[in-house]
Amino acid sequence: MEKKINEIKKQAAYCLNCKTKPCKSACPLQNNIPDFIKCIKEEKYEEAFKVLTETTIFESICGRICPHKSQCEGSCVRGIKGESVHIGELEAFIGDYASENINTPGIYSNNNKKIAIIGSGPSALACCYYLSTRGWKVSIYEKHSKLGGLLRYGIPEFRLEKNILDKWLKKFILNSNVEIHTNTELGKDITIEQLKKEYDRIILAFGANISSKMGIEGEELKCVLGANELLEYGKFPDFKNKKVAIIGGGNVAMDSSRTVKKLGAKEVYIVYRRSEKQMPAEKKEIEDAKKEGIDFLFQTNVIKIINKNDLAQMECVKTELIKKEGETREYPVNIEGSNFLMDIDYVIMAVGSSPNKDVIDKLGLETSKWGYIKVDEKYQTSDEKIMAIGDLIGTKQTVAWAARSGFECAKNLTP
Ligand code: SF4
After folding, report:
1. Which residue puts its alpha carbon closest to atom 3 of ligand 1?
2. Considering only the top CATH level, what class is 2-101?
3. Domain pair 2-101 / 114-208+355-413, same fold
4. Per-residue pLDDT tens for 175-230?
């Protein structure tokens, strides 16, 4: 512990407390990073927590799993000539300190209004925290047996230990204004009509966890699995000594590859059609996957999956990266004649995700052409009693962006 505190103090001392706060501007939650680090320098940990709770309650979680290198740490002035301040580590330290040492936040007032939140991922929990501490009676409806949504059922244990999540939930979410209904799924166990009768408002926050498809031949084969469903339900086929390819370049692809490897797969490949530097996954996650023996096939596109006599193969093609006129991002274009076949036991799709269309269609709400629920700037859907937040409305799929929508939605109800 002593060693940990010394490291934390050293990191805090390394921060320049820049007046322009570029790290704050790059944070989706606009956390006041220079000010909370200044409090750490002065060993005022409770003060540091107070500064952070102006914009977040996810310190223990975001500190561990946010893509810091593309957010706050990516804009850190220290990073121009050397290494950025380890902002995530400092944030997690304060979150853990608070979980152990700081009293549960109180309830400021009661307004006798009832609200149902469907889902319990980061957007739902941010919203729940804000509303319940400001007097709303909040009922959370969660289809799984425990709270956490993506934090519990989408992020593997090696990235976020669930005892940290449990401690945090107990401290910051489970107050006397919050009622929990687990194993209760919208559309199966409860209907939107029932909820509308019982509550003043309803907030939909059940995420977008259906793995997207590539639209290629062979995707319907039994050997092709969705990354999101695998991570969510944890019902894995026997991967022992198998050869597995994961298609995609985000954190879900990294999480899937490392999970499959830990389950005993012999060879695990990440197949990504762009270059390594274009990968959306956190650099640390890519490095960790490499260390654990995952192989990477960059600039490789999968165009077909074939299954003949129990032998599955992927047909791949190499790509070149081309910059279109007036655009900054390079696009992968298949190189004619570079096709090759790869024997494979399982293919896991990690190329994005979308909301559950069956559930959404039954709600009768307006949706975008991509299947997300349409909301206005106040997170209001086409039904005046219903609001929607998080990945369901197409926010950038990170914990911090989801949480931001939860906080903003709650503030619109109780400024
Ligand atoms: Fe500190 Fe980096 Fe933020 Fe400057 S940009 S205040 S050095 S964390």
Report:
1. 23
2. mainly alpha
3. no
4. 889 999 999 999 999 999 999 999 999 999 999 999 999 999 999 999 999 999 99
